[in-house]
Batch of 4 targets.
Target 1
Amino acid sequence: MRILIAAAGSRGDIAPYTGLGAALHRAGHDVALATTDAFAPLVRAAGLEFRALPADPAVRGGGTGRRELMRDAAAFVTELGQGFADAMADGTDLLLLSATTAPLGWHLAEATGTPSLGVYLQPTAPTGDFPPVVTGARSLGRPANRLAGRFALRMADRLYTQAVAELRHRLRLPPLSPAATRRRQERADWPVLHGFSTALVPRPADWRPGLDVVGNWWPHHDPAARLPARLEDFLRAGPRPVLITFGSMAAGDGERLSGIAVAALRRAGLRGVLQAGRAQLAADGDDVLTLGDVPHAVLFPRLAAVVHHAGAGTSAAALRAGVPAVTVPVTADQPFWARRLAAIGAAPDPIPFASLTARRLADALGETVRQSAYTRAAAHGARHMATEDAAGHTLKAIARLGGG
């Protein structure tokens, strides 16, 4: 079966699909992953065909305010829609659509008659269990949570209005608004698999049929991969260190964050590894090492804790390794995942990025590393995650759609 996965966003929005795609390929399917040019090496390293999507979130303004985020998202979606159909070559038997690409992919599926399946990394359907994950809000109570969830979907529909109108015109489809399209998909119980663990977010009981939580799709990495020699030397030279990473967040803030990180580590009496990331963290010393990208699955089990921005992928990777976290959420869905880690006891209360200081970080690190309850909770989450088989569930869902 020829399967096309379409995903767009930052690295954390793409990497899980390389692992999913590789699993589908091992099961005998021909798999392509359509995403933006920056992630072509990730796609090809997983043994998948790469197809280019015409947008790049990294060139946006990068602001963290609500208005800036909405402006950047609308521009990104409009650009994405302008060339979306070009990446979808003829001959595809099944479309797997991320939350970002589904509002565009639905129209392509309609035009070509191609079956489609949602493969989401965040819960987007309204529920009384929690408010919309992208708002960063705390629970408003069940009725208000559901109302806020419906409002968030309406706001998302607005982001896609121009892109959808242009795409349907190009595909020679009659006009149909994003909101009307979404309602049509919901009435049809369009299937969506959610690639996160029930250890963090159990499936809400008030979700409609067709919405399932299957566990994480883990980013592909070479099983023979080894850590860099200098990192191995550092790990062996003393007690387990703490990793500090902000992933694709905090561009241009590296000098300030590096100073905070080093001061906090030394105040807490801990060794540390800084992952440069988009912020370009950097520091040198006998007790601190700076590195670039390394597979989380290889490094995380050898750490005392991970300080991170609470992106969905990093949050899951730390829990999978049985390692407690100190979360410093920046924007979007990060406060949601940070609170979920705290709720299961695998992290203390989040430190909002705007409130981050060396003292607050040192205090949180000292508490997290030295109180064994956090490590026990993380280990419990890891055992739960080990029972989940997201790729297997996906293959069964594909079989139900007629994909063998």
Target 2
Amino acid sequence: MITNQPSIPIDSATTVEMTDHRPVSQAERIQTIDILRGVALLGILLMNIPYFSMAERFSDAFNHNPSNVNFWLDAFITILFEGKMRALFSMIFGVGIILFMARKEKAGPRHDSQSATGLFFRRMGWLVVFGLIDSHVLLWMGDILYYYGVIGMIAFWFRKMKPTYLALGVPLVAIIGFVLSTMFYQSVREKRLAFLAAQKAQQQGQKQTQNQQQAIINWKEAEKEFFPNKAEIAEHTRKMKSPDYFTVASRYRQELWDGQTKYLIFGLWDPLALMLLGMALYKWGFVTGQWPRRRYWQTMLLGYGLGLSLVTFSFYYYYQNIPSSWAFISYMEQHPIQWAGLIYPFQRILLVMAHASLIILLIQSGRVQGLLNRLGAVGQMAFTNYVMHTLICTFVFYGYGLNQYAEWQFYQLYFLVAAIWIIQLIISPIWLRYFLFGPLEWVWRSLTYWKRQPIRRLSTDFA
């Protein structure tokens, strides 16, 4: 049976941290949280896999063509899952911060090296290290572990706030995010307009000023970074298909470093707000299934009713106005503010709340118990399964593996997604039948406590 026992604090792997580090029984778990995490983890692969496997601007080939099956598959994923699975994963990560700290603080003061705060920051510090490995060694450009480690350290300080204030972070950050993205959008737009003015002067035979020459250089640099042309895409693809690991690595390392440093400030706000929302939803009892079924039904119907309307309109708007990367440049020249971007944070929250309500209602119904148990096992091993996505996809697509990069149609990628889902839904519960943690969860736990932790199940009491 699926059990919900929110009175028992557990860590972000939803496992009780006892002062003697004893193994924990299944009764001491909040499986609703594991299941939600498992759904999010598997769902994230829907959005990630094209970035493992396809060249830049891959969607330009079908974004404007409703007669192409890839158009409708992309529409389905964009409308129902894009951003929502990452949002759910971030929310559950925020829940994990509260659960990890609750047991430690309840255990009372300990030596500084083993204090609740010290353990938490060591835990997040190691997550940052794992993220750097996932991105710079395993070469996954979309790694989130690094960001979660950094942002988790920030979210930590908000965990004791009232849930209402925590939830207010979502609209506040939506506004901040829109302002920041608009500032970034306008800075790129200004470079484009300055380039067009310099280009026009050049075509009219006017002698270029130093500012005009610099404007051309600035736009060419921005274009190379954000709007690669066919020759640049071909060169990137050549690197990705190289059998030499270091050649493949040279394709992403600078972009990764820029994202983790120069552009970090732009990426902090959204996951932070979602982690805080997760904390609020835990305190309100939403994610632990404590609400009446009627309220979950209301949340689901409202979320799908408004959310689907907003996201469908947004998708159609972009289909009409920005069907390709180069169409975006033309759009940017004409529009100083991208107002349609305001829709995204609100439709996403509405739909992620609807998705979560649907899952919790399914849990409460007692149906498809076997599938739910498997999803819970995937969620319990989320760290291991996430890195497994990296290992499988880089092996299949990168040049030093099976070299399938830029070889598959968009729709074909999802046969591999289905295969990975099936593998993880089968292997995760089998592994947890014999072991307390996933292998990477065990490493992470041991590093956090700076002590080798037990991993094998020693008694059927813990099965």
Target 3
Amino acid sequence: MSSSPSREERRPTLLATALVLFAVAFVPRILVAHFLAGEPVWDGHYYDFGARRIAQGLGYSDDVRVAGALVWHPWCHYPVGYSGFLGFFYFVLGDAPWVSQLVNAIVSSLLPVFTWMLARRGLSEGRARLAGALCAVHPGLVLYSALVMTEPLAALATLMAFWLTVRDPRPVRGILAGALMLGLGALVRPQALLVAPFLALRVVDRDAPPRLFAWLRRVLPWAVAACAVALLPVLPWTARNCRVMDGCALVSTNAGWNLAIGAFPRATGRFETLRSSDGCREVTGQVQQDRCWFAYGVEQIRSHPLHWLALVPAKLGYTFDQESFPVEYLHEARPQDWPEPRRADLRGVLTAVHRFLLVASLLGCIAFTPTFGRRGARRLAGIRGGKRAVFAQGLLATAVVVFAYAAIALPTPSFWPLAVAIAILPWLPIPGRPAWPSALLLPVALLATTALAHAVFFGEDRYHMVATPVLCILVAAGLRRPAAV
């Protein structure tokens, strides 16, 4: 008879863990949101304004003056999901500042819970709790709860999609449920659609075919199905755009802008303001303007491909090398509360924690097992490739130490190569590698697609916040045992 606890016996323990993680996360987040939050600024201003318009029954829109009269003017430049989500609470509770503070604190506090729930599908219970705890106390995520920005909700929707995919014992049903959730998340962050094909990894969690083409034959049909299902929640919004805008747009009309910002002659690798003098002088509607900038960006890439490629390290550096956006956002909202010494100190803390997570996350890609004594000999015998696997993992660990030292020791610290390595290593058939079930590979896919998207467009450190829970999971996965034969 099995001595493991039954599902009914485990349920109170799991609920208690979820409540503790939520409480540990919520207390500092609601305090930060209450005492540090100011008027929404930068993109947050538009998200908040859009939410208020939605709550008033005016849709995602503003009013423009035409011939002296105000005329209703529809939007879709920014994704609608976060404004729609926040607008629901404004409609129910009113649009006082405390509403957005409470909603953002709750959303951010659910992140550690779903980080733990996803991690426990691929790690031991203790490691999964560590992942959730790291996410709960992460200072950048805590501070982010004071910002009216999309990243926590986008991360939560994506983690929920992954959890729905891996929790169901029937892989096909899990893929379909996860794809629907991912489609809702795409209304907050359209890049979420990039991970939709990876949901199909669930069908090969067990008994994966040994040959690549056999593996692809099993995965590809479900990857296509996941992409199609993920589009279902998006299509009604697309139809709205086709009806009220000056053309059709899948979710939003900022992809063309972002491509041009990452490719035009003045591009630096981070956000730069586009001017009419750069191109697209004679445009009217949002869709037309975005298509113009997209065509302009493509033309710049075709004409100057080396310039565009040379910017990739800078783009990834701006995305992964440091963490300062929450501090600068709060300074912009309440400059009198953020003198430069305080800003510098807190930026230093956030950046140090982020860099530590990047370095420690690489340990999640390395297997470790003692090889001394009789127990070590038995473990070695259970590893495919035996001593060759141990040697490969030792070599990989040495490379990690060298990479980490180089990242720190350079005159200008450069940590983005570590993020790229974390996104690539789990997919390589390195001898002695630890197990990579879909519950762990899907978070890696989120990190990989985040890096890819911002290598193409442009980088800012706020964009890595969506993948911060991934780093927490991989830190908790550090130095696992090699996958058994």
Target 4
Amino acid sequence: MPHAPMPRFPTRFRWGVSTSAYQIEGAADTDGRGVSIWDTFAHSPGRIVDGSSGDVACDHYHRYAEDIALMAGLGINAYRFSVSWPRVLPTGAGAVNASGLDFYERLVDGVLARGIDPVATLFHWDLPQPLEDAGGWLNRDTAHRFAEYADVVAARLGDRVKLWITLNEPFIHMSLGYGMGVHAPGRMLLFDAFPVAHHQLLGHGLATAALRDRSGSPVAIANNYSPVRPVGDGPADLAAAAAYEALHNRLFTDPLLGRGYPAELGFDDAVVRDGDLDVIAAPIDVLGVNYYNPIGVRAPEEDSPLPFEPVPLDGYPRTAFDWPVAPDGLRELLGWLHRRYGADLPPIQITESGCAYDDRPDAQGRVHDPDRIGYLDGHLRAVHAAIADGVDVTGYFVWSLLDNWEWAEGFTKRFGLVHVDYPTGRRTPKSSYAWLRDVIATARREIPR
């Protein structure tokens, strides 16, 4: 089904794709890389749906030049990747693995040579296992080790990385990794995981200072957000929705923008020391927004340990993850951020947005994914509408360039613009790749050179 022409975006809009180290790099035992919590988790029986791991993943470590060529063919002007902490500091601290840094230098120089801005995320969930053994993000010391790691990376790449992102989705890492146990490191602490939130944010603040000492490039954080919609209009349902919004959308934003932790969550804040909130609220240049879908919430059952119950939202198409496809939610979210934080809100970039479908090559080897084209078309239009509403949105990164290893789902969910045949590593651009290439080409013709 043909789509109407895409409306014009600002001339300096950042068009990009995103990936993460553990999901694509492979080379788990190459160049002195240390063990991460995801290595340990993935090799624990029963943790991953298909029993796979990221040991090889997409073999991006060896095929990065081919992947850069795919980026160049797409026409993007920015590439968001993550640095593997254990590839740089195998034990999380101490001795630097120079060959690991060499890989990221080759990657950064390679994308720059194709006119693409490197956007580096320092932590995309692959904590070095020795740090987890010492308590992980429950341990305040991890925040300081993170700042030291940021300093090491920025000392090598600070003159070339164009945007730094400290943390990726700290809410998801806290809730699924430490709260519910379905992601690495597999702990089940529920609301006792609050120290993980605080220490991640403290690490962000300390790393921000380290980055500014080494690099003149802007600094951001990438938060996951979901508009919260009460299912039911009773007072208990509305209270449940408010509690979930405070946890998911405000816990990692209010303190970043100088407003402290949401008091209504009632966390034991004994881990918060004098001066911590000032470190956390150091100004950032960009707020990264990762958006996939809204969430429905209602009042919980009486015996629930949580003050809310997530429930499916009806009336939307679904992805292979069974997530609702709701572009209206992205416009809603951006408007909420704009209204709530006002002048305190820095420019926004959509640092992840994408969808999983069961994409398969046809008899001619082509991969048609019209549902992904529809998804991207709708969400780009939602961003454009938010800009027209007065929200300062300066970029959109598709998740993801490649089909990849999708955490606890293993290889069963495909998000890529490029299909990957995992046994051979063969890359095949999908029809969504060609569609987005044409959208970007039209948009970038408007950019003066």
